[in-house]
Amino acid sequence: MRLAELSRRSGVSTATIKYYLREGLLPPGRQVNATSAEYDEEHLRRLRLVRAMIQVGQVPVATVREVLRHVDDDSLGRTIRLGAAMWTLPQVPEPDQDDEYVRAAQQEVATLLDRLGWEMAKQLTTVSPAYRSLVVAVAAFRRIGYGWGAEQLAPYAELMHRTAVLDLDGMERYPSEAEQIEFAILGAILNEPVLQALHRLAQEEETARRYGFE
Amino acid sequence: MRLAELSRRSGVSTATIKYYLREGLLPPGRQVNATSAEYDEEHLRRLRLVRAMIQVGQVPVATVREVLRHVDDDSLGRTIRLGAAMWTLPQVPEPDQDDEYVRAAQQEVATLLDRLGWEMAKQLTTVSPAYRSLVVAVAAFRRIGYGWGAEQLAPYAELMHRTAVLDLDGMERYPSEAEQIEFAILGAILNEPVLQALHRLAQEEETARRYGFE
Question: Do the chains contact at B202 and A124, CB–CB below 8 Å?
Answer without folding.
Answer: no
